Structure formats: C-alpha cells, structure tokens
Amino acid sequence: MPWAGDSQDVPSPSELDSGSTCSRLAKVKKGVNVLSPRTSQPRQWDVKQELGDSGKHATATVVCQRLGPSARNRSSGSFHEVVQMNFEIASFSSLSGTQPITWQVEYPRKGATDLAVSEVFISQKDLVGIVPLAMDTEILNTAILTGKTVALPVKVVSVEERGAVADISEAVECRSADEDVLEVSDHCDYIFVNGKEMKGKVDAVVNFTYQYLSAPLHVTVWVPRLPLQIEVSDTELSQIKGWRVPIVASKRPTRDSEDEDDEERRGRGCALQYQHAAVRVLTQFVAEGAGPWGQPSHLLSPDWQVDVTHLVADFLKLEKPHVATLQDSRVLVGREVGMTTVQVLSPLSDSILAEKTVTVLDDKVSVTDLAIQLVAGLSVTLHPGVENSKAVTAVATAQDLLRTPKQVGAQLRGGEGRGGRCAGCSRGEAGGGGGAGPRSRPGPRQHRQRCHLSHADLGQHGPPRPSSGV
C-alpha cells in the first residue's frame, strides 16, 4: 500500500542560485518501495530520481535542480519544502513494527549533511488512539511513613477505527514527566511511589507511547505533610493514689548479685500505678497544585487530618524508655520521674518525622469517679458529608437494654488503660505529710481523663461531630 503520511521536506539553503543542484539519498529495507517523488514548486525546481540496490537495502537518490529564483522571502528562513517522497509497503507479512528510513542531503560546495533517520510504523490495524487505564486516579504516598512501595496497576489498550479494543500493555513505552513525584515500572505495567519522592502533585503525568500514538495518564499524588503531629491525651503523667501494681524485678534497678534469694526478695512488692495517656499520630495529605503558582491542595479539606498511627506504629520510639513506655504503640505509660520525647522515626533515613515531649511527675492524683456503661448492642449509621462529598460520617450508638433471655451485655469501663479502675483524676496535693513530703501545686487544677468509648477510629478525623450514646 502507498504511504505518504510522513512526507519529508528537503531542506534547501536559500542562497542556491538558479541552475544549482542538491541531491538527497534515501535508504530503506527490502519490502519498502520508493515511489516517484513530487516537487512542491514545479516552476522553481526540477526533480529526478535514481534507484539502486545494495543487497538488504534499496536506495533512491533524488537530484533537485533550481530552475528559477525563489518566490519566497529569503529572510523568512533558510529552509523550505522542495520535494515530497512517497513510499509503499510491499508486504505486511514480511515486515512488522518500525521500519527506519535513512536520509542524507548533499549540497554543492558544502558537502553532505549528517545522517538523519525517520521511522515508518507498520500495523495491520487502523488505530485511532491508545488509552492507559488505572484502578484509581489518586495515590496516597504512605511509603514515606512505612518504607513500603505503593503501586497502582496500569493497562494500556488500543482502539481501532471500527471500535475494536485490544490490550497492548506489553508493547508500549512509558515515561514519568516528574520522577520526584511519581515513577513508572520498566515494563509499564504499574505506577508507584517508594517514599523517595520529594513532593506530591495534582495531575502528575505519565506518558505512554505505542508506535506513532501516545497518551498521558493523569494521577494525583498525595504526600503526608511533615512534620507529623503527635497527639497525646495527657503530656504530664503522675502516680495514682491507692492503685498499686506488682513490681517486676527486671524493671527496677538492682545491683549485681549471685544470690537468687536476694533477687527474689527484690522482685516482691508493689508500687503506685502511673497514669496512662492515649497516643495518636495525625497528618494532612497535600499535593502541589496544577496551576502556575502551585498552591497546595489538601485531601478532603484543610480541616481534615488523617490518623496514621497504625502506619508508623513500628517507628514510634521513646528517647528515654526508662522514663515511659509505649504499649501497643498507642498507650503511653509512665515508669519513673523524668522527661522524655515520643518520636516517629523515618523508615528510609535517620531523620525524625515528628516528636512530642512528655513529663512524668513526682506528684500524685486521686480517683474521683468511675464511669461504667452497659452495652447490650451497637448500631452504626452512615451519613454523607455536608462540606465534602468524599467524606462519610459514621455514628455508633450503644444500646443499654437487654431484650432477650440470657443476653449478655458488655461493660465498657473507663480508666487509664486498666478496666474500670479510674475514670477521672484530680491533680492536687499528694496525700499526707508535712513540709518534707511531696510538693503540692498552688491552686490545684483539676484534670479529667476521658473515660468513655469514642467513635470508632475511621482513620480520618475532621471537625468535631456529635456523638450518639457512645
């Protein structure tokens, strides 16, 4: 079939005089035929073609001779179209893929130019376009927090003029427009982030190419805003009067001894329980805007934060673990008087993603009340977000009525991480003693521990929402 879809222009210096000639050499593989050339300006140029055969390749030399002065303004540029060359694909069965055409132009007194290569794409299908398809149009770059790659599978399909669709994923080429935001696999079958990216972006682009067709894939990449925010329900922890717990031998300082009985005696006894505090790690996910000023965009809205405690649980550390410890990466427990820092370490480097200072005090607090709730059942209702269509509010309601015989109800007990021991504590003078006893604070302030079941942790926390029975 004839092919002239990518007609080549012969660059001709504007200073060629009447009668001057230039020649152009085209070399193609066997199976691609060179048809007769056509001049674009028959009154200005005469073209002649000579065909040759060099074994695996066929050659065509086109000699162009100026007949008269150029009608174009020479100041408009030194190159203009002189001749068009058409090609014919002799057999689709013997050729496939991309066929190169090598060009060279020779000018009088200037010699030959460097070789140039054009490509002819040979396909038995009349394609009108390609379409990259992804499972989603957004990626949360949690790899910065976890060190684990986040990937999104991609398929690329071709669309023929008659409407047929075919999977061409294994034959495409691809490239990310900004690898500091988003990367693409070597086989173009998925896009990913691995935590080494520098920023997020709205409408990050990955370009896919198949033969002469190309198409972009637009993805928004959200990254956590650093530093993260560590939320501690109480940054000052004290001992609780009247609540004693056994002393673990390995947790109290002892001198070296080979006397096992001495070690056993030291392991006995009780000490006052220190307060517990809930720990959460929050952040906002942001992306650089697509506009010229690159204003940051927020996931959902600037009022929303995401609870990422479960993602950074393995990287939550205490600077001084002898002062306080973390239980299940969510509960902070005092151990001895002092000051320490809760830190979130980066899984990919030695940097600190967040830190919060907490203090274990030497004063004591008292139990003021207990809160116990009978829960015979739970119900959950979902409500669409009012301010943001992507948000859904879940409200859990506790039922305290036993409706059937032998029904068992659960008791939700408030306290410092210990069922029902302490629902509220008042911080004031330590009990008893004179001037040498534990210090007291002027005008003792009241401090309440929240001892009720909060909303189920949905991972995202927005403006305060009304609770219902829980």
Automatic annotation (TrEMBL):
Domain annotation Transmembrane protein family 132 fourth: ranges: 129-226
KW Lyase (keyword) present: no
Transmembrane helix listed as a keyword: yes
Subcellular location: Membrane
Annotated region described as Disordered, given as residue ranges: 1-21, 407-470
Residue span(s) of domain Transmembrane protein TMEM132 sixth: 366-408
Compositionally biased residues, Polar residues: 9-21
One Pfam family here: Ig_TMEM132_6th
Domain Transmembrane protein TMEM132 fifth: 229-365
Basic residues composition bias: residue spans: 442-453
Domain of life: Eukaryota
GO cellular component terms attached to this protein's record: membrane
Coarse class of the protein's main subcellular location: membrane
Membrane topology: Single-pass type I membrane protein
Domain Transmembrane protein TMEM132 cohesin-like: 26-127
UniProt keywords, alphabetically: Membrane, Transmembrane, Transmembrane helix
PANTHER family documented for this protein: DETONATOR, ISOFORM E, TRANSMEMBRANE PROTEIN 132C
Family to which the UniProt record says this protein belongs: Belongs to the TMEM132 family.
Protein name: Transmembrane protein 132C
Naturally occurring in which organism (per UniProt): Pteropus alecto (Black flying fox)
